[in-house]
Structures are given as C-alpha cells and as structure tokens.
Amino acid sequence: MGRVPLAPMLLGVAGLIPPVLLAIIAWFDLGAFGPVAAGFLFTYAALIFAFLGGTWWAFACREDRPRLVLLVLAVAPPLLAWGLLPARPQTLVGYGLAALILLSPGVDALLRARGLTPRWWLRLRVPLSVVLALCVAAATYASTR
Q1: What angle do helix axes 90-103 and 105-113 make, rounded to 10 degrees?
Q2: pLDDT averages per 10-residue partition of the chain, 145 residues
Q3: 66: how many CB neighbours lie within 10 A of its CB?
Q4: Which of 28, 36, 121, 130 has its CA 20 to 30 A from that of 18?
Q5: Residue 39: how many CB atoms within 10 A of its CB?
C-alpha cells in the first residue's frame, strides 16, 4: 500500500483537531459553548465530506474519459451534506454524517482499484474517516443526553 508521506499525514491529522476538540466540548458540555459544539462539528464534518467529493472528482478526471459513475460519486458528497445539514432531528444529521463519512473510504477503495489514487491513499483516508465519524457520533450522542 505504500507509506503515507509526512506532509499529507501531518495535515490530515491537523484536520482532526477541530472535530476532536468539538467532540470533547460536546461530550463534557464544557461552558457556554457545550450546547452548540455538536452543531459546529456537524458543519465541519459536512465541509470535510464535501471536500472529499472534490478529491474524488480530481481522481476520476485522471482518466481520459472519466466514468460517469465515478463523477456521480464525486458530486454526491456536497449534495448529500447540503441536504442533510438542515434535517431534523439533529440526531439524523449527526448519525447520518457519521455513517456517510465512515462509508466514504469505499469510494476511495474503488478509485484505488482503478489506479487513480496514490498507493498510500487508503492508509491515510481510513483512519482519518474513522476518527472523524467517531467524533461526530460521540457529539451526536452527547447532544441527546
């Protein structure tokens, strides 16, 4: 699978700082920010999910004739996030985003199988997705207590 280069690894981990902090704030209901931490985390997770769609688009377009299914998969994340954010109840938003993020490495695996991603891509994406999904799920649960 290849070793993840240092810069993508460090920047990927840095991208987890906001969701980890927000999940902690939501879980422990810290200060005045506690009740809204989950909402901020949902927004951040939706942005990350939409960003993933952009990376999938770039990988899909590496082919001379990009496959329609790959392009549709690439456009789906921002549309799904946009449709999910205003949903009610908030548990639907949180658990829905967590599920989508947790499933997202499946698309990465499809792109990797077609030779469109770097060899190390899944070694980066899987742990980042798992941690982000767990943060969103934890904040969602905390917001219902």
Answers
A1: 20
A2: 94 98 95 88 98 98 97 98 95 97 98 97 98 98 91
A3: 15
A4: 121
A5: 17
